[in-house]
Amino acid sequence: MNQNSTNTQLKISAQEVQVYYGNNHVIKNVSLDIRSNEVVALIGPSGCGKSTFLRLLNRMNDFIESFRMEGKILIDNEDIYDSTIKVEALRKKVGMVFQKPNPFPKSIYENVVYGLKIQGIKDKRRLDAVVEKTLQQVGIWEEVKDKLNQSALALSGGQQQRICIARTLAVEPSVVLMDEPTSALDPISTATIEELIYQLKKDYTIVIVTHNMQQAGRVSDRTAFFYMGELIEYNDTRELFTNPKIELTQKYITGRFG
Amino acid sequence: MTSSAITYNRLKDKFFYWYGLVCTLSGVFILAVFLYTILVEGADRLNMQFFTSLPSRRPSNAGILVPLLGTLWIMVLTTFIAVPIGVAAAIYLEEYGKKNWFASFIEVNTANLAGVPSILYGLLALEIFVRIMGLGRSLLSGALTLSLLILPIVIVSTREALKSVPKTIREASYALGATKWKTIWNAVLPSAAGGILTGVILAISRAIGETAPLVVIGAMLYITTVPTHPLDDFSVLPIQIYNWLSRPQKGFIENATAAIIVLLAITFLLNGIAIYLRNKWQSKVKW
Questions:
Q1: Under an 8 A CB cutoff, do B166 and A91 touch?
Q2: Which residues of A touch B168 (CB under 8 A)?
Q3: For B216-271, what is each residue's pLDDT tens digit?
Q4: How far is Cα A49 from Cα A176, in angstroms, rounded to an integer?
Q5: Residue A39: beta bridge partners?
Q6: Which chain A residue has the Cα nearest residue B282?
Q7: Is B189 at the interface with chain A, CB within 8 A?
Q8: CA–CA separation, A192 vs B187, rounded Å?
Q9: Do the beta carbons of residue A179 and residue A209 sit within 8 Å?
Q10: pLDDT score, position B182
C-alpha cells in the first residue's frame, strides 16, 4: 500500500472481521486500516457488504437480531465491540449520515441540537452557538438563519441532508460515516455535499459508501473495493482507478459488471 | 372479444357504478334523516335553562346539567387513566417486547378485547371497582370501567402509529448517541403523536357514548347534586337519554332528543378534532 505521508495516525483498524446474519456469511475476513483525516470510499456492487461494514463502525448492526461478528475493530486503539464499551458514547464519537435525508419532524434548530439535548445540555447560549457553527460548517447558515424555527421537513432534499450532517457534527464526532449520502439527491445538491466532504476532511475522518465511482474518485483519498463480502482491493483512490492490481476491480470500475 | 360482449361488460361497469353509489349514499341518507328528525324535535328545547337545570319531575323544568357535567368528568378522568396506561402498554409491546409467541398471544387478545360486548366490561367493573375496591357508584368507577373498555382501542391505535414511524427516524436518533428510551421519547413519540392523538380521541368519543357498562355499575338515574369530586355519584348523557325516553310524557321525549343533539355535538366535535389533527400531521410529516 502506498503510504504517502508518514505522520498520519491510525484511526480505525478492522482486523480479520467476519460478519454473519444467521447462516449468511456477509463479511469475510476483512482487514482494513483508516488513518486520521482521511476520506475512505467503500465501493462495490449491491449486496457486497460495504454498507454492513460501514455500520460495523458505529455498531448499527447491533439492532439486527441474527447479527454475529468475529474479529476486532479498533477505533483510537479501543476495541469497540468490547463489553465495557458504552455504545452510546461510541456513536457520539462516530457519527453517521444516511442514504435518505432523515430529519426529525421538528424545527431546523431542534434537529441540530437533538444530540446535545439528549445528553442533557440545556444552556441556550451554548446550543445557539452550536447551531450557528455547524450550520456554517455545512454551508447552509445564510439560507436558514431566519427560519430556524420552521420544520426541517419543509426544506429541499439537499438542504435536509446538510441539516442531517450539521446534526451529526453538533455532537462533535471525530469520525463521520456516510452511507450513500447523495444517492437521493439531484446533481447540484450532490456537488455541494461533495464539496462539503472535502471541507470536513480537515477535522474529521470520513468513511463513505457510494455507488457512484466518479464520486469515489472525486472525494476520497483511498478506496476499498468490496465484492461478495470480501475486500478485494484497497489502495490510493487514483491508483485504484487508474491502475487496479486485481482483474475483478478492473472489471468493476470499467462497468463490465455491477 | 365480440362487440356484444364488450357492450355487456360495459353495462356491468355502469351497473356497479350506480350500485356502489347507492350503497355509499344509503348510510349518509339514513344519518341525514335521523339528524333532521332529532333537530326538528329537539332544537326548541336547547336553551340556557336546559343546560343549567337539575333533573325534575316536570319535563319543562328538567335540564341536563348533571349528566352533562358527568359526561365531561368521565371524559377527563377516562383520558387521564386510559391514555398513560394504553400508550405505555403499546410502547412496551411495540418497542421493547420480544417478538415471540407470547407477544402474538397478547396481540391477538388485545384485538379480541376490542370486540368484547361492553356490558361484560360493566359486569367485571361492578365486581372489581364497585365492590372489591369499594369505589361505589362513583365517577371514578365509571371512568375506570370505560378506561378498561377503550384500552384495547388505545393500545391498537398507538401501536399502529408507532409502527408507521420509519426506521430511519430511529436510526437517526441512535446514531446521535441516544439510548432506546431517549429515542422513543424524543424521536418516535413526537413523530407518532398525530396518530396516537387521533386514536385516543376516537376512543374517548366511543367511551362517552357508552351506556350499558355504566348502567351495570349503577350510574344514577336521578341525581340532584352536581358532581364535584371523582368519588361523587354521577349520571351521564346516554343514561339520561335512556331514562327520559322510557317516560310516558311527551315533554321528556323532547328533552331526550335535545340531549341527543348535545351528545352528538360532543361526539362530532371530538371526531372533527381527530380528523383535523390527522390531516395536519399528515401534511406536516412527509417521510
A1: no
A2: 98, 100, 102
A3: 887 766 777 788 888 888 888 898 898 888 888 888 888 999 999 999 999 999 88
A4: 19
A5: A206
A6: A105
A7: no
A8: 28
A9: yes
A10: 95
Which positions ≥6 away from A96 have C-beta within 8 Å?
Answer: A58, A60, A168, A176, A177, A178, A179, B171, B175
Q: Give the full edge-to-edge strand order of the sheet including A78-79.
A: A24-35, A10-21, A67-75, A78-79
Question: Do B177 and A164 lie within an 8 Å CB cutoff?
Answer: no
pLDDT digits (tens, 9 = 90+) for B1-37: 678 888 999 999 999 999 999 999 998 999 999 999 9
CA distance A169 to B164: 28
Length of chain A as a residue count: 258
Between helix B237-245 and helix B250-284 the angle, nearest 10°, is 150
Answer whether B191 sits within 8 Å of A167, measured CB to CB.
no
Residues near B218 by beta carbon (within 8 Å), at least 6 away in sequence: B126, B130, B137
B193 touching A, CB under 8 A?
no
Q: Which residues are paired to A231 by β-bridges? A: A226
Nearest CA in chain B to A161: B172
Measured in angstroms, the CA of A205 and the nearest CA of chain B are apart by 16
Residue with cell 385516543: B200
* Closest C-alpha to B153, from B122, B113, B121: B113
CB–CB contact B176 A167 (8 Å): yes
C-alpha cell at B57: 319531575
Query: In angstroms, what separates the C-alpha of B205 from chain A's closest C-alpha?
Result: 28
pTM of the shown model: 0.83
Alpha-carbon distances, residue B68 vs A203, B52, B75, B119, B274 (angstroms): 65, 10, 11, 22, 21
Which chain A residues touch B182 with a CB distance below 8 Å? 118
